[in-house]
Design a protein that fits this description.
alpha+beta, single chain, 494 residues, globular, six-stranded mixed sheet
Length: 494
């Protein structure tokens, strides 16, 4: 068989080479006979950024760009009738009009052959092998930092404040390490650098666990105005770190290989109020330590990559383009506009504002969120408690920052201003052209308050007691209604 792509356009030459006596044994028997057929799956339409555009359900959808090539067609098994039917389908597609905002991806067979036969392909070098690191954090380096910083557990009082400099170095063990809560099974700790910790041992998933890093702020802390670190900065910065993947002295490929070898899966994302990093790990063969090494490097030595930043911006630009073509997203956008007006912190940022972001701007917007005093570590899984606390001191307690702790006001961002539209705008009806007649419904009701009474973020009143539990199913309607009223009279529902 001829090779797949390297000898395209040189079939006759290869047959002559194979016939020479000196090449005997260099080709598999019976020698070169025919070329493997090229089956390339190409998009019918692309957008201005080169991403694939598909049409389905009456809307235009975006997916990652690229082409796939596969398969070898055996001439003895080709069904000519089936090929003819497929050809008619392709001809019908060619007669379709491109969706709005899309460009026809028209490539001829001759262009494909010419690209495969290009002499430039002869100069392609194989990608270098990826060196698998044994550790993301050098054991000697972390030991040196541990000896220098002397991290320790401190009392839990003053959640949002740094430990006073005058605090004694030696704190009573019973004060710094309070017992596990008997009702919840949760153990709380606080490190001397300000990081707060909650952990709970559970064997729901034997020999595995989840480590979640939570940083307050999220998109609510973004600026409302466009600029280098303006609207959309926190969302783009978070995705940039996730897209880049490189930390410390290690490349993205090495970090990925390290995670695969140690059964680690991590996801970083930001929402309206928080930045969240989830790390799933295997609690065997040092898996917990490997997870902490990864988290330590992400928080202490992240690498900001320009290419990852551009890919992140492009993702949100493409994502924004689909809002008006999705029934669910368009409906949600209209509801949010009616509720909060043009506050873009809780909506998709327009492309023209995303284009104004810079790598330095988004980095400056996100870094205060990663200050140790703003980080909470939550661990749940089947682990050894003493091992977990040792690793917390060694890898979380040695995280430092050169910047000042962020203020509470900077993390909360400007208050949300609720709109008060006229009565005729309380009921909005609109129609989206779709292949299926559908409707989107959003149902709201009373829920525990998260931002203080009426969203003003003022402190909640002292709780009179735990919320009333829901009544059992057999309770009569009057008693059930009374229990619901009592539960909703709780200050958390203010």
């Amino acid at each position: 068989m001829l090779t797949f792509a390297s000898d395209v356009g040189r079939e006759e030459e290869m047959l002559e080479v194979a016939a020479q006596p000196e090449t005997e044994g260099k080709f598999a028997k019976p020698g070169p006979t025919r070329a493997t057929s090229i089956v390339a799956c190409m998009p019918a339409y692309i957008d201005q950024y080169g991403d694939t555009v598909t049409v389905g359900g009456g809307v235009m959808k975006h997916s990652s760009g690229g082409m796939g090539a596969s398969g070898h067609l055996d001439a003895d098994e080709i069904n000519l009738e089936e090929l003819e039917a497929q050809s008619k389908e392709v001809d019908a597609l060619q007669d379709m009009q491109a969706p709005a905002g899309a460009i026809s991806f028209d490539v001829s067979a001759e262009q494909i052959i010419k690209a495969l036969a290009s002499p430039d392909l002869d100069n392609i070098e194989p990608y270098p092998d990826v060196e698998l690191p044994d550790h993301l954090v050098d054991p000697e380096v972390i030991e040196q930092r541990y000896q220098e910083l002397q991290p320790r557990f401190v009392p839990l009082d003053g959640e949002l404040n740094l430990v006073p400099a005058a605090a004694p170095a030696a704190v009573s063990e019973s004060v710094a390490r309070p017992p596990t809560n008997a009702e919840t099974g949760i153990t709380q700790r606080r490190l001397s650098n300000g990081i707060r910790i909650n952990y709970r041992h559970t064997d729901n998933e034997p020999k595995a666990g989840l480590l979640r890093i939570v940083a307050a702020g999220g998109r609510a802390a973004e600026s409302r105005e466009p600029g280098p670190g303006g609207a959309g900065a926190v969302a783009v910065a978070t995705r940039t770190l996730s897209e880049g993947g490189a930390v410390g002295d290690w490349s993205r490929e090495q970090v990925e290989a390290y995670c695969i070898a140690n059964l680690i899966h991590s996801v970083m994302d930001s929402n309206d109020e928080f930045l969240v990093l989830d790390v799933h790990f295997a609690a065997t063969n040092g898996g917990l330590q490997c997870a902490f090494e990864l988290v330590h490097q992400i928080l202490q030595a992240p690498r900001w990559d320009e290419a990852a930043f551009e890919r992140s911006k492009l993702f949100f630009i493409n994502n924004n383009a689909g809002v008006g073509k999705s029934l669910e997203r368009a409906t949600c956008s209209k509801i949010m506009t009616a509720m909060i007006g043009d506050d873009l912190r809780f909506r998709d940022v327009p492309p023209e504002m995303l284009e104004q972001l810079t790598l330095g701007g988004v980095q400056a917007a996100l870094e205060p969120h990663l200050h140790p005093t703003n980080i909470e570590v939550n661990v749940a899984g089947d682990f050894e408690t003493h091992e977990l606390e040792d690793l917390l001191l060694r890898y979380m307690g040695t995280i430092t920052s050169q910047s000042q702790p962020p203020s509470r006001a900077s993390l909360l961002g400007p208050p949300v201003v609720l709109q008060n539209p006229p009565i005729e705008q309380h009921h909005i009806t609109w129609h989206l052209k779709d292949s299926d007649e559908r409707a989107a419904a959003y149902i709201a009701g009373p829920a525990p308050c998260r931002w203080g009474p009426f969203g003003d973020r003022s402190p909640l009143a002292p709780l009179p007691g735990p919320p009333s539990p829901p009544p059992p199913p057999a309770t009569n309607p009057a008693a059930a209604a009374a229990a619901a009223l009592a539960r909703r009279a709780h200050p958390l529902y203010a």
